[in-house]
Amino acid sequence: MNKKIIGVFLISLIGTLLCGVIITYPRWSVLIKESSEEQIIETEITTDVEEAETDTVKIEIEAIPTPTPPPFEEYDISLMAVGDNLMHMGLVNSGRQSDGTYNFDLLYEDIAPYLDKADISIINQETIMAGNDKGFSGFPYFNTPIEIADAIEKAGFNVVLQSSNHTIDQGVEGLLYAYNVWKQHPGVMMVGIHENTEELHDIPIMEIEGIRFAILNYTYGPNLGAVPSNVQGHMNILCATREGSKTGELDFTRLDPAVIDDIKRADEMADIVIVCPHWGTEYATEPSKYQTEFAYQMAEAGADVIIGAHPHVPEPVEKITTSSGKSCLCYYSLGNYISTGQNGQSMLEGMAWVVFHVTEDDVYIDENKSGVLPLVMEYLSGPLRFEGVYALEDYTDELASKHGIRSWGGVNLSVEKLKEWSSSIFGEWSISKDYILSQ
After folding, report:
1. Can you give the pLDDT at residue 14?
2. What is the torsion angle, in degrees rounded to the nearest 10, for the CA atoms of residue 98, residue 99, residue 105 and residue 107?
3. Which range marks the domain in which residue 420 is found?
């Protein structure tokens, strides 16, 4: 009797356990899935239909997808450049303070909005700084206060061209003094002159947002027919030495082969090559035969942009296309940035504006955003003093009537005449200040 009771009890117990398994099985599936999710591996529990009777559980593990990198965001890099910082004595005296010190910040205040917009900003320092203790002088043998370097850096220029026909106005000693002045201004990359002759063919490189710019500066020569032996190697010369000359006599009709070599090496080292030659004929608003020939040779060698100085008046902008199909944007001359010259067209100047567009695979000049902004430099007479630099579009006949150039006689400056010159020289490359500032 007791055995029967025990048997019934065991059968009931086994039945209860089996029912529990059947009832709770779905909950086990959930627990398995939750456990697998905690291990950051997504699993799917499936029961093969054919194997359902054996209660076999099959687990499939899905591969983790590789993240897709974000698309490359294209961007622009902008360059602005102005012409000759030609420090006549009227401009030197404009910076003299009541206590006898010098400050030249006023010379660059009017172009501050453009400097703020530019990533690369270039100015041609036409005159040399040989030391204030030597006293100051204007044409023909300039010596400019060293405080001009302070103002240039403070204004926001980060490239200075120092190789000009006035570089050795105060001898090689003046050149070396100026070199050391610029060493005290680490925010400015000065190009064109050298302390050590071994550095003559070094390639100056500036990197902006991952893009490498080579910036080269040469002058056709000093105000001599030859380069003195003690100067050779200290300044970059554009023209070749006359064949057979033992005295460094220059041949102004031939480009120095070393310039081509420099440009080719720069093209290998940098993404963009900018060449700044001091060349041309003074007061000629059209480039000379040698300017156009040299420009083409430099473009063939790898120059992307050419920005010229020296004529003291603006000259045209040209897109050069080489035999290989390469393009180069050439500003033959931007004219003077500041001066107290006596030539009416010297009061008209250009500010180069170049936009480089960067893609994932390339960087190129965006011609639709590049051009030249016409400017007018105003000075007063009695005494000669700097007054301002204006966008031509803002210049008025009232300002023209007060211009100090009238004191020299023979110059009748007017807005109409300035616009006529600007249209003739810059043509379709002329752009407005709002166009630049809106970029």
Report:
1. 53
2. 40
3. 75-437
CATH of the domain at 187: 3.60.21.10
Tell me the pTM.
0.85
Contact 411, 335 (CB under 8 A): no
Q: What would you report as the CA-atom Rg of the chain, rounded to the nearest whole angstrom?
A: 36
Burial annotation 100-133 (CB, 10 A radius, 16+ → b, else e) = eebbbeebbebbeebbebbbbbbbbbbbbbbbee
The tens digit of pLDDT for each residue in 114-144 reads 999 999 999 999 999 999 999 999 999 999 9
Residues 250 and 357 in one domain: yes
Per-residue pLDDT, 65:
79
CA-to-CA dists, residue 5 to 9, 14, 17, 158, 330, angstroms: 6, 14, 19, 104, 112
Shared domain for 418 and 310, answered yes or no, is yes
**Range list of H helices, 238-376:** 257-269, 289-301
* Domain count along the chain: 2
Give every residue of the chain whose pLDDT is below 70, as ranges. 1-62
Pairwise CA distance, residues 405 & 385, whole Å: 11
Amino acid (one-letter) located at 123: I
Sequence length of the chain is 439
Predicted pLDDT of residue 70:
87
Domain annotation covers residue 120: yes
The residue with tokens 């033959």 is 332
